[in-house]
Amino acid sequence: MTPFTRLPDLALRTFGGSVVAASDESFAEKESLIRPGRPAFSPETFGGKGQVYDGWETRRRRSPGHDWAVVRLGLPGVIRGVVIDTAWFKGNYPPYASVEATAVDGHPSPDDLARARWTEIVPRAELKGDTEHHFEVAGEDRCTHVRLNIHPDGGVARLRVHGEARPDLSVHEGLGLDLAALANGGLVTACSDEFYSAPNNVIAPGLARHQAEGWETARRRDDGNDWIVIRLAGRGLIKLAEIDTTNLLFNAPAAVALTGLDGEREVPLLPRTPLLPDTPHRFRLDHREPVSRVRVDIYPDGGLARVRLHGHLA
């Protein structure tokens, strides 16, 4: 695993990503590029356009140029790495690809994006068939869209754009917000254990459909407890905590505690409190000190579906 793949996929469809335009999608639809999960394949499954692929595939070019697809990031942010996955494309993958990025706020149309200034973040690189290609990205620029260029044509199963969310929080001025949410710029920066599923799942948008869409640890055989640290969207005052154990019927933690962190200072937010399985819990918090991070301790181990920390930016 490349280190950047531990960061959220900013382009993921379930995070609000969209493939807004493509030069061609004759054989397989562009929307497949940002689907969650591994690409599927069933051999000798033919439709009216040929073999069915879980990916994006263009026709064979008979003219100069190359094919491309533009993706609106569901979570605008700083890109740390890109994965171009040609899974199952063995005789029809592009020999080369490159990736560009831009930042256009608001609701730009495909024509608006065509006129935008694009910056190359992954130079033209050689691809192989049926392979995940990992490319680290340098820089601190905030991006809202990426453009995948394939040279000259072919099929790509998935495009993953890993990074740190940097949303425009000015829309929340004077209002409360979920300071922990990935969509607002929250990020899990430390974790005791992630044996079964990734900790950033607990701050993902929406509700967990099953227990794999939350965070779950291995069974502890010592006297300790598991924990995560969430970097908040901004330093703020938390007034309501939601701890959701939905779908965790026999592996929910017995209890939870919350501690705010601000520099070297620790602020008790919620003392050790019992939890029930398969239940959304809501706790009003009574404190007056803004914090920038929160440690969520679970006792002794188990899983959480979601953690929401509602409050106001300081």
Structural commentary:
- The protein folds into two domains: 3-165, Sandwich (Jelly Rolls), CATH 2.60.120.260; 171-313, Sandwich (Jelly Rolls).
- It has one helix at residues 110-114; strands spanning 18-22, 46-47, 50-51, 56-57, 67-85, 96-102, 119-126, 132-136, 142-151, 155-156, 158-165, 177-178, 187-191, 215-216, 226-244, 255-262, 265-274, 280-284, 291-299, 303-304, 306-313.
- It has one helix and 21 strands.
- The chain is globular, with a radius of gyration of 21 Å.
- The strands form five sheets. Strands 12, 13, 15, 16, 17, 18, 19 and 21 form an eight-stranded antiparallel β-sheet that branches.
- With 314 residues, it is an all-beta fold.
- Pfam families: Allantoicase (PF03561).
Question: How would you describe this structure in keywords?
Answer:
21 strands, 314 residues, Jelly Rolls, purine metabolism, Allantoicase, 8-stranded antiparallel sheet, 1 helix, mainly beta, Probable allantoicase, 2 domains, hydrolase, 7-stranded antiparallel sheet, Galactose-bd-like_sf
